[in-house]
## 1
Amino acid sequence: QSLPQQKLLTWLSVLECVEVFAEMGTARVWGEMGRWTIIVLIQLAKAILRLLLLLWYKAGIQMSPPIVPLNREQQQPLHPQDTEDNSSGKDQTYVGRRSSRVVRSLQSTPSLQSRHWGSPQQREESQSRRAEEMNQPPTPLGLQETIAESLYITRPLLHLLSLGVWGQRSWKPWLLSAVLDISSLSLLSDLKDLNRRERAELRRRTVLLLYYLLRSPFYDRYSEGRILLLLRLLADYVPGVGFVTRPLMDYLPAWQKIYFYNWG
């Protein structure tokens, strides 16, 4: 990736990290008007950055999060002692004569902090496989797939616009957003030869369609009573589950009030 593209991904990641805090802080300081203003500004900035990545840098299907979190265990370099053993020609492993099991030799055992429970070959294979996955170029998108990804990117803006036109209690913003999400996934489903990260992203978007059961006005009219009843039954009749379900019942009303938890 080029340096400007990396900067766009960094800014996009920062926005996604601070959006909930910005919404809650602005609502506390400037009230409801300030809250919706910051929501529109953040969604507009995110859409502009994503469209630049899609149309200018040909970044393909947008991932979430934009920058993959660092797995320190996978990225940890080999122990210096392993390098010394390699240079001195010592064997790092011992193969059992009867079991043919591969065991690390005592001379090449790393410290406890950097120790892992696989053979050196397994670790090198996993690191090389992960590096290959990270370095795979994005799948080129045709016109249909580009339109589908553009629909997914602009869906938050169209939802906010429909909220301003029809109000928060109307079904039209909910239906419009659902149609755009389903249309985007349908158009992208024809795309073949996706890499592993892109397939995982499409699966994530498909699972997120369940959020429409928790989004107003559907949640207010249909889902709320059933979900709370189910959580209450689990808390009363399943031992130990109440430690999770009772705080969840208290949290759901607060979760409903945060736009970026629901629709972000």
## 2
Amino acid sequence: PVANATIIPSPPSHQVHAGDNVTLHCSVHVGSAPVTFTWLHNGQEVAQGLLLELSDVEVGDSGTYQCVATNQLGQDGHRVFRALSPELALEVTPGSPWVTVAAGFGGALSFLVLLMAVIVTWHWWHRISHSLPPIPLIPPAPPEEGEVLYTHVVVTKRAG
């Protein structure tokens, strides 16, 4: 028979914020397959299955959760065993507007830091490229007859 049903929450905290995702996993330490799992929220059946996935939780999702593990034994299958997990109290707190503002500010700050890095890099590259001596486009002396002439031309656009 099934025994020792437990709930493993993810995240492990029993207090979450509105908008978070929560997964509850039911397990049994003893029990022959097949084992079925039923989920209760405040004593009312809400789902079937090994996992209970709560997406985008709201304050109304607060309360107690339990899982009921069930299996059958015997050749006739009429002996039904149930194991009820201890209650898991889940508290969903409303999202704070300050958290949203801080996240928005953090994103804007990251963008500004990245923008400044690009500007500083461009300015540094621009100064370096303009501080190099110009490469003459005409060789200093005409080549001798039969001499191999290699020409390397670099064109840069200068401001102003």
